[in-house]
Amino acid sequence: MRLSILLSFMAFSLVSYSQLGLGGQNGRKNMPLVDFGGRYKMSGWLFEPGFTWNSCRLFNPEEEYEDQMIKVNPSGKLGAYFGMGRYTIFYQGGNIFNYLDYSVAYKMLRGKEKITGAIEREGKYSHNYLLGNFNINNVIQFSDKMFLQNSIGANLDWRFLKRQSHDGPNADKRPSAIVANLHYKFGIGFKINERFFIIPAIETPILNIYNFEKFKSTWGIFNSRYRPLIFSVRFAWLRPIGRGDCPPVYASPDDKKAQENFQMR
Predict the structure, then answer these.
(1) pTM to 2 decimal places
(2) Which pLDDT band, with edges at 50, 70 and 90, does 19 fall under?
């Protein structure tokens, strides 16, 4: 698990660093993803429907249980996900991170486990959570209408409903009702028009904060550990400046020019 955490941070750092030399296709400068000329607000709403999957190990070796040899076979199942929240674009885009977002969401984590060998048992579970999310996002533009998004964030989950059954060993083992994680999220974004963006993404924990389990990032239940994956599609849009809204304030003409010409890299 420590290796997966290290690889996640390395991938994030390398992709973030690669944007410094990004010049667009064939040396052509890309059109800015966002108009910073004062026509749009730099904050707004976002929605994220999706689904979850609890991935697990690929190979299931035999192990000893009460002087008998058994094999534990975990497998994931699809679950629902939906989030809604707000985003704020940093002034002049920041140096590495370009915007932040926060949201509330519902997610369902489901799976099953089958024990074979000297003991034949099986179980299944379905846990439902309400959660709060926070992310800081790095955007790397590689065409006029496409970009990569790397995000580091945190989530705090509360389990309000659970269904689980197992007639084998460790039948009562499950995560706590409150769960907190650091997570990593990777997406590929599409600019549909001047105001509307769609970002399909995948998210996974990189560190369990509560309950802290010696730097693990997986989810333990029954006799197995699972890696929660969230597949979502973010819908976000820019809102026009209204008559009652304050226009953007610039410290100097050079500052105004920089903001108008800024391109999220």
Answers:
(1) 0.84
(2) very low
- Of the candidates 233, 151, 232, which has an alpha carbon nearest to the alpha carbon of residue 192? 233
The dihedral over CA atoms of 109, 115, 121, 122, expressed in degrees to the nearest 10, equals: 20
Residues 6+ apart with CB under 8 A from 1: 215, 216, 217, 218
Report which residue type is found at 32. Answer: P
In the predicted model, what is the mean pLDDT of the chain? 85
Q: Which two tokens stand for residue 233?
A: 């599609």
Measured distance between the N- and C-terminal CA atoms of the chain, rounded to whole angstroms: 31
Distance CA 209, CA 182 (A): 7
Residue bearing tokens 């966002």: 34
Out of 21-25, 68-72, 245-249, 255-259, pick the least confident: 21-25
Mean pLDDT of 71-94: 92
